[in-house]
Give the backbone structure.
Amino acid sequence: MKAILKVTENNTYVKSFIFYSFGDARRFLNFVNIYYNESGCGNGYDAYWPNYLHIPYSRFLPFIRGIYIYSRPRPYLLSVNDVKKNKIRLDFIQSMLYHILQVRFAANEPDFENFKWSIEDTKEGIKFNHEDFPPQVRPQVGDMYRIPRSCLGHIPDILEYSEGRVIEDLDDIFKVIPCQCLSNVGLKGPQKIFYIEAERVIKINDWLNRYK
């Protein structure tokens, strides 16, 4: 059965795409969610983001604060030819995939050429597939880290140190320096030290030393 999925394109338009099957749509949604969660890129980097409805804080229902309702694939029972098709941007998909692999391989120049993936915009809908991504990696001392969006929680000022470098491993806790206190030649400016649960962070590519 065909499926339709809404995503936000480049922080500008909400686009509906028709997929060849539910499997294709679910794989694409998972791909978009991984990019949104791990890449560190804002929406406006030639990418697709999940389309979501944000439920604002309510003093009557405080337990729903920060909840986002994300779009999910829905059955599409009409003929593909009955509607105007939105053309998916191949260059966006390539860019998103590259950023995901940078994080999962923790490499500035990941092995993009040998990663198997495919996308085909057919008359019957979009076919999308890729091999499994490498698992997330736990950083070690000296590595750069990032806190995925799903792990930010509601800790005050956590965005101030959501990305940086691990300077000490205390088993379940990392001692870290945020990236705004770092440069490609070492430390810069007033130093701020933070502590964060190791399970919240993932290793990322060392973009500060990319050109060294």
Observations:
- The mean pLDDT is 84.
- The first strand starts at residue 3 and ends at 9.
- The chain has two domains: 3-130, 144-209.
- The helical segments are 22-38, 90-104.
